[in-house]
Amino acid sequence: MRITRKKKRGPWIDLALITSILLLVSIIIFFTIMDDTLTGHDNEVIATDSIVDSSITEAESAFPGIRIISDMSNDPDLPFAIQYPQTADENFNVLIEDYINSSKKAYINAMRPKKDTRKIEKLSGELNIHFDTYQYNENYYSFVFTERMSTNEKSTKTTLKTVFYHIETAQVLDIRTLLGEDTKNLETFASHVRELLKANPDLQDVLIAEEVDLATEARWVLFDKFAIHQDELYIYFDEGTIAPPEQGPISVQVSMSFLNPLLASAFQMQMVEVDAPADGVVDDNKKRVALTFDDGPHPEVTTQILDSLDRHNAKGTFFMLGNRVQYYPEIAREVLKRGHEIGNHTWSHPVLPKLSQSQIMNEFTITEQALVEAIGQESTVFRPPYGATNEAINTMIPHNVVLWSIDTLDWQHRDAQQLVQIVKQQMHNNAIILMHDIHQSTADGLNGILDYLASEGYEFVTVSEILPYR
């Protein structure tokens, strides 16, 4: 019998075979991962705006150096309408384009799976971005973007973005710059914003108190959405931040002139100097002092101040804002009932020298009307907001225009003890002391002031009563 011997395979053949198999498996795994990347778990690779057909146009705006770019989708399944500004500054343009592209990508990534898997039904979704431009002191521009995105027919999410830009220096500025990088200024500013929100009657039923406190902590990042418009600083809060989402975004306005002491020098405006004590006009040695309270009435603080004045048998003068008299007429009536003087402090607390004659008189007149409706009589004296006035305004107003000789700065330090110390340090005969009946710390410190002045022999009189001696 013939025996056939099988030739033994060499070890190098086995090695080559194993290597080939491993290489083949590696290739299969590689292309599987790439396929997943392109088709599934990372939509950023395919879902970019480059694959959405759109029409882009450009036009000049009403503001020098600002162009408007419009980007309109041509895809009925992925509709969007976007407008954004561009300037000659490439860095600014990149900043804005990055924001726009990021929003478009988020929208398309959310809509793309629906488009790819739908059968017949029409998709429901839309992206709309538009912006408002506000100019301040010629070279400063505030851009406020409002973005509304919906990816279903049930809800639309609204978010805001702001950019504060100096067109001459090509700088994007933040709230730090505005407040001079000063954390003390930030603390005062944050506290004031919180009080404005909580004191707004239109928001009383919608604000979430604990969320307001969190959103107005003294942290720079919490106030990064702002704009300056007609001498008002607007602070914006996204929907769902301090109120239920259905309330939408919420804003609060702060007068730039009210913030003047907190602002960096580049943003400060020049104010007229307040009255100083007059020499040689006092006709006897009797000590007098006029306590004045601005910006009220306040439903809680004003009442506490009235109680403190009653305990010391002291009279004061309350310079009221017309818009607050309208909200709290019963408090204004209580001030009058307890024997105090009521002054006009304008309707909305503007910087009067920046207004026209008709605007100034309107501020005065509608406040008088509010007072007549609330207390049955007009005011007796007038105080211009911030002490900002001039001879023309003083002549125009039909009342004595009264400033002050001691500014307690109670709105800034919010410290009852410091309030008392300032009065002690600056006190003089026939003084007119400036305070505000909208701050709890002022109510807390008033008893200490009254105790000190009474111990020094001062008589508490109204402004009208002290004017002949000044």
What would a concise description of this structure say?
The protein has helices at 11-39, 90-117, 175-178, 183-199, 209-215, 301-311, 322-327, 329-337, 357-375, 391-396, 410-413, 416-426, 440-455, 463-466, and strands at residues 54-60, 67-73, 80-86, 126-136, 140-150, 157-166, 171-173, 226-229, 232-237, 250-255, 288-296, 317-320, 341-344, 381-382, 400-401, 406-407, 431-436, 459-461.
In terms of topology, how is this protein built?
Blueprint: H1 11-39, E1 54-60, E2 67-73, E3 80-86, H2 90-117, E4 126-136, E5 140-150, E6 157-166, E7 171-173, H3 175-178, H4 183-199, H5 209-215, E8 226-229, E9 232-237, E10 250-255, E11 288-296, H6 301-311, E12 317-320, H7 322-327, H8 329-337, E13 341-344, H9 357-375, E14 381-382, H10 391-396, E15 400-401, E16 406-407, H11 410-413, H12 416-426, E17 431-436, H13 440-455, E18 459-461, H14 463-466
Parallel strand pairs: 3-4, 11-12, 11-17, 11-18, 12-13, 13-14, 14-15, 16-17
Antiparallel strand pairs: 1-2, 2-3, 4-5, 5-6, 6-7, 8-9, 9-10
Helix pairs in contact: 6-13, 8-9, 12-13
